[in-house]
Amino acid sequence: MDYFIKDIVSILKNKIDLPEDEIKRQLEIPPDFKMGDYAFPCYSLSKALKKSPNVIASELAKTLHIRSPVVEIKATGPYLNFFLDKVIFSESVLKKMWDERERYGRNNIGADKTVVVDYSSPNIAKHLAVHHLRSALIGGAIYNIYSALGYNCVGINHLGDWGTQFGQLIVAYKKWGSEVIGKFCTVTDLNNLYVKFHQEAEKDPALEEEAREWFKRLETGDVEARKLWQNFKEASLKEFQKIYDMLGVHFDAFTGESFYNTMVEDTILEIKQKGLARLSEQALIVDLEPYNMPPCLLRKKDETTLYATRDIAAAEYRSKTYNFDKMIYVVGSEQKLHFKQVFKVLELMGYNWANYCVHVDFGLMKFKDGKMSTRKGKVVLLEDLLTEAVERIGKIIEEKNPSLENKDTVAKEVGIGAVIFADLSTKRNKDVIFNWDEVLNFEGETGPYVQYTHARLCSILRKYGKPVTADVNFKLLNEDETVVLIKSLWQFPSVILRAAESYESALICNYLIDVCGNLNRFYNTHRVLSDNEEITSARILLADATRQVIKNGLGLLGIHAPEQM
Ligand code: ARG
User: Fold this and answer.
1) How far is the CA of 330 from the centre of ligand 1 (A)?
2) Cβ(121) to ligand 1 under 6 A?
3) Which CATH number applies to 2-84: 3.30.1360.70, 3.90.1150.10, 3.40.50.300, 3.40.718.10?
4) Is any ligand 1 atom within 6 A of the Cβ of residue 256?
5) Is 306 a pocket residue for ligand 1 (Cβ < 6 Å)?
6) pLDDT tens-digit profile of 109-164?
7) Is 437 helix (H, G, I), strand (E, B) or coil?
8) Regarding the domain delimited by 114-274+304-366, which CATH topology (the fold level of the hierarchy) does it fall under?
9) Residue 94, Cβ neighbours under 10 Å: how many?
10) What's the CA-to-centroid distance between 120 and ligand 1, angstroms?
11) CB-side exposure of 351: number of CA atoms within 13 Å?
């Protein structure tokens, strides 16, 4: 817990009729540091005291006992504002950061708790599309954020590797796949076969029947069907892994829909035994009308199971296997209804952990610059997007800093970082409007800007050339811009907590943009390196702390922080 809050609570408690926890909960950080470091709103005292909050605030300001580190208490309207001693504040913040370094911002509130995160989860035999990128990035960041809070995280890629479409693919492969048969096929080959199937099936509907037959054979473990499907899966995983490696996204398990194939029958049986299932037009459903939802389809009339059935079986399996405290599904908003239905069925099955399942949804990614969206049909291929970002950054580096060492590595880290940041900095329920010039700008609210600020700090520290020490004169860090910067660094741990609570990595992006802005204002007004050694070493400590916060923050987003660029 923030120890300054404790100090303020200790001044307020016994003087006002509220429990300590409630005081803590109500404390706010004023929007402008000139208004104080903490503010206590007096509204909630108004009723009991029968006075206006403004009167209460001004009375309290006169009667409360000021003690260190608080140096002033002032009433502003209904708020009671507390000012801390700047030197004590700066010293405690910077010393804490100095001690914690890469651990700064971390916490162990999640110790002994498990969070399952289901993200990316693309369908095999198709290219990874942009919404799988959004899911991979948002999910990856949530994974990192929860891990930083001490939770044991399990990252699952729930591959879409089961369903009637694999029957269709088998039919197409056997009929028109002569070019790829016996060879290691690519996702493009599979995609083409898939398209071909649909073209042909329009002319010859019997193909659909054949496909359903093949999927049934797959579900019942037919050797040939299994073998073909296995090939499709391997080809897809190979391509996906390449992109995950580019993005630095990691999974603990690739247990896709097929993994639950042997469990779905038990799940269906259980749902039946609990009296929840019934037949409707020969299909097995859970009626969700009382909850104002369409029925959840468990089994089609041809006996094959569905996406929802496998999600229910998967949730049961994960609960048994991981005994999670929370399960987060990072999937686009178009699946809102699907998850509402699945969670409702789990709840009706009597699982209280259904309440711990969350659908973290997100909007679309749209391309301002039409070029990307038409290159290969409607779908933007992820690999192309990432490669293009790296190429474009490579050119910018070539212009700006041609003598840079490891240019290729830096171009990769910055190009991919730019895409990640553009995605994550948009609040997730909004659509991302992807505009190359904005995304790659070194001066906008972008990944390259944050990385560049970090690299500049590294360069100052290199120039300084001496070890950084926390044994400095903190009285020298008292100018407005300096205090504002230190205050923003102080916010980092609470920003991580808020990002976790709201599953919103954009909070971390915005925060990093603020820190960079504060750093630049500080830097434009005060020289870090000067002949005055005492001032230099104090400002270097601050520069180093800022560098560390940026690096830690980028790390949570899955973005590298190159030292030179
Ligand atoms: N494969 C699905 C798709 O591409 C996403 C799966 C999300 N995860 C889940 N457990 N349903 O739309």
Assistant:
1) 9
2) yes
3) 3.30.1360.70
4) no
5) no
6) 999 999 999 999 999 998 888 888 899 999 999 999 999 999 999 999 999 999 88
7) helix
8) Rossmann fold (3.40.50)
9) 22
10) 8
11) 26
